[in-house]
């Protein structure tokens, strides 16, 4: 019988992660086909897969298309009801697929879901990239149930209930394949970072819902491609956040939100310089100039599908809640 779920791992020079985690994924995903798509790695990833994992379908791409382009090229050719976008640096728990697939089968309005994401190295703590489901505030700043900015909570079961969220992490995203392709997949101009938030925003604007289902658990190393204090990641996050807002926010709100965001980004750039390095300051400046250069392209991607069912989180202004009011945990917001 043909399987209805594909677990797709996008790999780029991740041989060590494949050696560490791929067997775990295959053994704990008997109801799915496991596929590794390789973004023209220059390490021994492909040879390792061919020699050690004939049980895994290998798709070799002709260049490094980034997170966005790599997944788009693979998923556009898949004939599965569900696709799971799974990072190569993730350990999955037994029966991790079934709770989410069963939930999506029973809830046709749900377009995408994520499991609970815990830290592989400290398994009692939530992991930065997704935790127990993501939200954005009025100004587009992302935060998670279990992680607000750099404050990671210990998992004591406080977020074990299923919850409608604004975005599901791209580290372990379950999505209906047809809907993924219908809304255009991940935006390839993003290349990497915040692309999943943009995708979830578009899915909601098209009338669908996003959920976190904590009955499913995975453990994420994090920073497998870019460490979170890498200036290149800073560049992508600031540039793509502005692009995401321009693409999805209402025109009347853009009049004030973009100038406010640019000002706050400038303040953040100075803080990053002070706390980390001058390279982060330059990264934010480059992000702004590259955003200006492509603003007309992002504007043309706006669509007329605007619904009111986007899931709003508990914080309207997360900067005020976190830095001024001292609310470091999601359940305090």
Beta strand count: 13
Order of helices and strands: EHEHEHEEHEEEEEEEHHEHHHH
Shape: globular
Oligomer: single chain
Number of helices: 10
Main sheet characteristics: 9 strands, mixed
Distance between the termini: 47 Å
Estimated share of beta-strand residues? 15-25%
Percent of residues in helices: 25-40%
Please, could you describe this protein's structure?
The protein has helices spanning 15-27, 45-52, 66-75, 98-106, 177-182, 195-205, 231-248, 251-275, 278-300, 318-324; strands at 5-11, 33-38, 57-60, 82-86, 90-92, 110-119, 134-136, 142-144, 147-148, 151-152, 163-165, 172-176, 209-220. α1 packs parallel to α2 and α6 (195-205) packs parallel to α7. It is of the alpha/beta class and 333 residues long. The protein is 39% helix and 20% strand. The protein is globular, with a radius of gyration of 19 Å. The mean pLDDT is 94. The relative contact order is 0.14.
Features:
two-stranded antiparallel sheet, alpha/beta, globular, single chain, 333 residues, 13 strands
Short note summarizing the structure:
By secondary structure, the chain is an alpha/beta fold. The protein has helices at 15-27, 45-52, 66-75, 98-106, 177-182, 195-205, 231-248, 251-275, 278-300, 318-324; strands at residues 5-11, 33-38, 57-60, 82-86, 90-92, 110-119, 134-136, 142-144, 147-148, 151-152, 163-165, 172-176, 209-220.
């Amino acid at each position: 019988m043909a399987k209805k779920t594909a677990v797709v791992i996008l790999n780029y020079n991740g041989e060590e992660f494949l050696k560490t985690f791929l067997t775990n994924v295959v053994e704990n995903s008997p109801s799915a086909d496991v596929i590794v798509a390789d973004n023209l790695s220059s390490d021994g990833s492909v040879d390792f897969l061919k020699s050690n994992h004939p049980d895994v379908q290998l798709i070799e791409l002709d260049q490094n298309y980034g997170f966005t382009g790599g997944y788009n090229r693979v998923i556009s050719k898949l004939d599965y009801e569900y696709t799971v976008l799974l990072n190569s640096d993730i350990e999955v728990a037994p029966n991790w697929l079934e709770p989410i697939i069963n939930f999506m089968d029973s809830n046709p309005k749900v377009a995408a879901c994520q499991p609970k994401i815990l830290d592989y190295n400290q398994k009692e703590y939530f992991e930065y990239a997704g935790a127990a489901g993501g939200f954005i505030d009025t100004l587009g700043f992302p935060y998670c149930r279990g992680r607000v900015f750099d404050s990671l909570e210990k998992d004591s079961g406080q977020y074990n209930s299923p919850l409608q969220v604004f975005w599901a992490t791209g580290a372990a995203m379950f999505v209906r394949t047809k809907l993924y392709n219908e809304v255009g997949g991940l935006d390839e101009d993003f290349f990497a970072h915040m692309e999943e938030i943009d995708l979830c925003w578009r899915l909601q604007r098209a009338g669908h819902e996003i959920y976190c289902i904590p009955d499913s658990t995975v453990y994420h190393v994090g920073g497998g491609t870019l460490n979170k204090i890498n200036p290149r990641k800073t560049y992508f996050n600031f540039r793509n956040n502005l692009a995401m807002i321009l693409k999805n926010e209402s025109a009347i709100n853009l009049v004030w939100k973009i100038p406010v965001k640019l000002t706050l980004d400038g303040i953040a750039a100075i803080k990053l310089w002070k706390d980390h390095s001058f390279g982060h300051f330059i990264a934010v400046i480059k992000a702004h100039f590259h955003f200006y250069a492509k603003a007309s392209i992002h504007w043309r991607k706006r669509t007329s599908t605007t619904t009111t069912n986007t899931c709003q989180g508990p914080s309207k202004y997360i900067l005020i809640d976190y830095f001024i009011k001292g609310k470091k945990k999601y359940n305090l917001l």
